[in-house]
Design goal:
- The chain is α/β, with parallel strands linked by helices and 193 residues long.
- The protein has a single domain, classed as UDP N-Acetylglucosamine Acyltransferase, domain 1 (3 Solenoid).
- Helices cover 20% and strands 28% of the residues.
- The strands form four sheets. The protein has a seven-stranded mixed sheet with strand order 2-5-8-13-16-18-19, with no helix packed on it. A five-stranded parallel sheet has the order 3-6-9-14-17.
- Strand 18 and strand 19 form a beta hairpin.
- The longest helix has 18 residues.
- It is globular and about 55 Å long.
- The chain starts with a helix and ends in a 10-residue tail after the last strand.
- The relative contact order is 0.11.
């Protein structure tokens, strides 16, 4: 079994010294560099680079530079989602972001987990857990999401939160660790319909 196959199955794998994975990360780093240095007025070039870097993202995804990802091909992003400046998607595990999400500046989604014993950690071992974000989620600035977390559709995560466990749909949640505080209701509407 290859290290990539182990990674995809959520098993311990050699993340740091497997040449195939190293080359995949170099390729993504090169594309991130090109995307981040692309003139924002050159929308055609920017779209082309985004397609190469994130082949499973909708054409309507907005991404503000700078943006970083480890592989890119392990990110699945729905239509109309907007990712603000400074986002880092560590996609050793699959990262799924639904449609029409607002991802605030400097958000980090970290799928990697490392052994607690330094001897194993120093050998490059890692295990990746998926991150799933439903549709219409708003992540405030500087939100951190850890491996294996699912955030339900319509949830709002307060700025600076560290999300260590699943968050239910249509919930306001915040803190470190992030906890649900209340449901989002019709009383939260700002416009009369």
């Amino acid at each position: 079994m290859t290290e990539r196959e182990k990674m995809d199955l959520g098993l311990w794998y050699d993340a740091n010294f497997d040449q195939d994975l190293v080359e995949e990360r170099w390729k993504a780093a090169s594309l991130c560099l090109a995307f981040n240095n692309c003139d924002p007025m050159d929308t055609q070039k920017q779209s082309e680079l985004k397609r190469q870097l994130l082949p499973h993202a909708s054409e309507t995804v907005g991404i503000a530079a700078p943006f970083q990802t480890d592989y890119g091909w392990n990110c699945y992003i729905g239509e109309g989602t907007d990712i603000n400046r400074g986002a880092y998607l560590m996609d050793g595990g699959r990262i799924t972001i639904g449609a029409h999400c607002f991802i605030g500046p400097n958000c980090g989604m970290y799928t990697a987990n490392h052994p607690l014993c330094y001897q194993e950690r120093n050998r490059g071992f890692e295990k990746a857990g998926p991150i799933t974000i439903g549709d219409n989620v708003w992540l405030g600035g500087d939100v951190t999401i850890l491996p294996g977390v699912t955030i339900g559709s319509g949830a709002v995560i307060g700025a600076g939160s560290v999300v260590t466990h699943d968050i239910p749909a249509n919930t306001v949640a915040f803190g470190n660790p992030c906890k649900p505080h209340r449901a989002i209701t019709d009383a939260d509407r700002v416009l009369e319909e």
